[in-house]
TrEMBL record:
Name by which UniProt lists this protein: Isopentenyl-diphosphate delta-isomerase
GO biological process assignments: isoprenoid biosynthetic process
Residues that bind Mg(2+): 160
Keyword Zinc: no
Gene behind the chain: fni
Amino acid sequence: MISNRKEEHIRIAENEKVESEHNFWDDIKIIHRAMPEVNFDEIDLSVDFLGKKIGAPMIISSMTGGVEVAKKINRNLAAAAEKFNIPMGVGSMRAAVEKKELADSFSVINDFNIPVRFANIGAPQLIDQAKPAFRDADIDYVMDLIHADFLIIHFNFLQEMIQPEGDRNGKGVKKRVSEIASSYPVIVKETGNGFSREDALELKDAGVRAIDVGGLGGTSFAAIEYYRALKANDEEKANSGLSFWNWGIPSPAAIKYCDVGIPVIGSGGLRTGLDLAKALMLGAVAGGFARTLLRSADDSQESIFKRVSFILRDLKIAMFLTGQTRPYGLRRVKYFVLEPLRSWMEAV
């Protein structure tokens, strides 16, 4: 069941229209500097990320694992992470816990020298559902499996509500996150619906190391599950998928909402290095890319290398045209915000 679901997710993400109706990164307009006084060849993309030096403020976000095709995808993504010296996460590792024979679809990344690795488990699985909750031994297992530097706990409760096999209980997650964060280096991540200011403050109190906003604007998992529900002839879940297709907090606004004194990662709808530059302007320490990379990673190593190089070149061009030689200098760049994002940003 897990393998079939994960492969369905990959194929739907590659072949169907699953984006939210509006990408909010387009609502940010940057003030151009006609005289940047910068040598393009002297621009340095390297940054310090949570105490580790990386080649650029770009993250290969958690995408997949637990199915045979994911092994190829993760291998190609890991090769890119090594080549460009950038962090990488893997998809939900519940599959590796439940079926040890699927572990190599995750551990394949160990063949590469990746500067920062993220293990990944789902917040709904931290508490008892139809299946028992993750235990500390399970967390130890997934961390050791890929030699992870950080543990991502991903929040996907909307997706769970649309999934035919989704988990429906959210009571007790906050307490469990706090317990885990006292023993493991935890990063929390939303999967397309963003975090509110209230969420961010509670997560900071819980002791998480960083917040990956995963806001509205890119892939809608309500949309992905809509297609799965259609295939399963589940009219009720398909209806909910349509209703909540565009649910959530826009990614740029979520970066602002989550500015509570711990590092923020911008993700959700990032397509280009220009989008990444905008996330850094808003205060993110890095930007996470997922579906933008998926098809290339499923194609070939050469294809994913090309895609990442295009993103990083566009980031450098944005820096050049705003007079910046280091990524975090983008926080000084002037910009303005159009509707509908403007109202979201003003609601902070």
